[in-house]
Specification:
The longest helix has 7 residues. The protein has one helix and eight strands; from the N terminus they run ββαββββββ. It is mainly β. It is globular. The N terminus is likely disordered. Helices cover about 5% and strands about 55% of the residues. Strands 1, 2, 3, 4, 5, 6, 7 and 8 form an eight-stranded antiparallel β-sheet that branches. β5 and β6 form a beta hairpin.
């Protein structure tokens, strides 16, 4: 029996670079198991502002936290946090404004 996906994905694209952050809201447990999230390394940070540059694509599952990311070269921002699966593309630069301390599982794509 096929499982229907009720996850809600959104993307924020920067005009300057054409890169986008993809946010999948509340992915199913089966999706998280399929990705092997629990075997990924964990990382966390306190509230504050942090510049971030991605030298490789990174996929993250946020266990807790709340972030507003401001994309370099754009006036746009996107919010994500606990329960979200987020993909940051290689070459993306942004500033994280962390309002609630973050705990996340993450994986870098080697390609």
């Amino acid at each position: 029996m096929a499982e229907s996906s009720s996850s809600n994905a959104e993307a924020m694209e920067t005009e300057a670079s054409g890169l986008s952050i993809t946010v999948e809201r509340n992915p199913s447990q089966s999706r998280l198991q399929q990705l092997g999230i629990k075997s990924w390394p964990k990382w966390g940070c306190p509230p504050g502002k942090f510049p971030v540059k991605y030298d490789a694509q990174q996929t993250c599952y946020f266990v807790r936290g709340r972030i507003k990311a401001f994309i370099k070269g754009s006036e746009d921002s996107i919010e994500f946090g606990a329960g979200d699966l987020v993909v940051f593309p290689k070459g993306m630069s942004c500033t994280w404004d962390v309002s609630v301390a973050v705990d996340k599982h993450y994986k870098f794509d080697s390609s």
